[in-house]
Amino acid sequence: MKKEIILLGDIEMGGGTLTDDFISDKALSKLIYSLCNKNTPVDLVLNGDTFDFLKCPYIVNNVASYPRHITDEISLAKLRLIYQAHTPVFEALKRFAQEHKNRIFFIIGNHDADLVHPEVRESIKALLESSENIFFSFYYNEQGVHAEHGHQYDFLNKVDEEHLFLQYKGQKILNIPWVSLGIISKFMSLKEQYPLLERITPRPALFSHHQAVEKVLTRQGLKYLLKSLIYYPIRYYFDPTYAFPRELIREFYRRLKNVHWDISEIVTVFKKKRKSKLHRNKIYVFGHVHKRYLEQNGKMTIIHPDTWRDEYFLDSQTRQLTPKSKRYVHINVETDQSLSWKLINVPIQRGIFHFDDVIRDEKKFIRLAADEEGYSASLAE
Ligand SMILES: [Mn+2]
């Protein structure tokens, strides 16, 4: 049967606060509406980190917090905020799902681990007013196309697929990796303080132009690491989210033995782990790493279409910040099951910012960026 597969990832829709980095609601919903009236069935694969639950606050009585014990109740409250902040995208998805030949796949990433809560899945199905053509999974694997987010090949962000939940004080909470817990409990105030700097790539260029931030990050990171090793496991003995990070130490030890200290690219790790099975699919699509990557290797193609959140490329010479463009993968499956693919750019009308202006008033430029893309959430703090 003829069909089309659309893949994109790392949208990172947040709660409409300063720590929400998604502002391209217009461009994204336009793309989704354009998929609605096709004659062929369409699989829309949102390849992980569709939602940024990690950086979305939990707000109760106007008090925002980032709890590390994530029950279904907390995930649902965050989902409500995300829905309010990005209703146009949900509306477009709802329209898309009205065509029963279409299917939506929410692939689970490290920023939306909350999608493992059955209550969250039900709530998304209710918001999209559809249930039989909406799926949640760590993998998409159809017609020779394999997609997954990619965090399972990144030892710092990897989750234990066999143990997705922990029990804490009689409640079922998410079993998320040490780095995610660190972001939630230690780094959100830094993100609130430097909301736009965190959107700038490449990181080495950013740090060379802003050593104060690099220093604070290194200091806080080291402190969190040391406390996680020698203090928290004792201080919070009965709290499983503070358990000694065993896996992390095991991986450090492996690296120490093999003198291997570069953080591996997920594609490299993936190829090594799946060596004997790689021929099974023709096209592999990953997210997680926010960059464009394309590899054609014999009969196999590997694609990273890059992120949909607002990000900038810093030119070290001119100190100009150019907004990154958005991209998706379009695959045609022909009747005889043969595949053809395209990596498509979605043009977005944006101006160039100057690094020196941005660091003087980040919030001003956060708002300016949102205005330029016609994004109109209140950007409450
Ligand atoms: Mn990710």
Describe this structure in words.
With 381 residues, the chain is an alpha/beta fold. It has a single domain (3-372), classed as Purple Acid Phosphatase, chain A, domain 2 (4-Layer Sandwich). The protein contains twelve helices and 19 strands. The strands form five sheets. A six-stranded mixed beta sheet has the order 6-5-2-1-17-18, covered by helices on one side. A five-stranded mixed beta sheet has the order 7-8-12-14-13, with no helix packed on it. The longest helix is centred in the middle third of the chain and has 20 residues, at 211-230. The chain is globular, with a radius of gyration of 21 Å. The model has no long low-confidence stretch (mean pLDDT 92). Manganese (II) ion is lined by residues 48-49, 109-111, 149, 151, 288.
What's the gyration radius in Å?
21 Å
- Pairing-aware structural class of the strands and helices? alpha/beta
Biggest sheet architecture = 6 strands, mixed
> Which spans of ≥5 residues are poorly predicted at pLDDT below 50?
none
Query: Which architecture per CATH?
Result: 4-Layer Sandwich
Cα distance, first to last residue? 49 Å
User: How big a fraction of the residues is strand?
Assistant: 15-25%
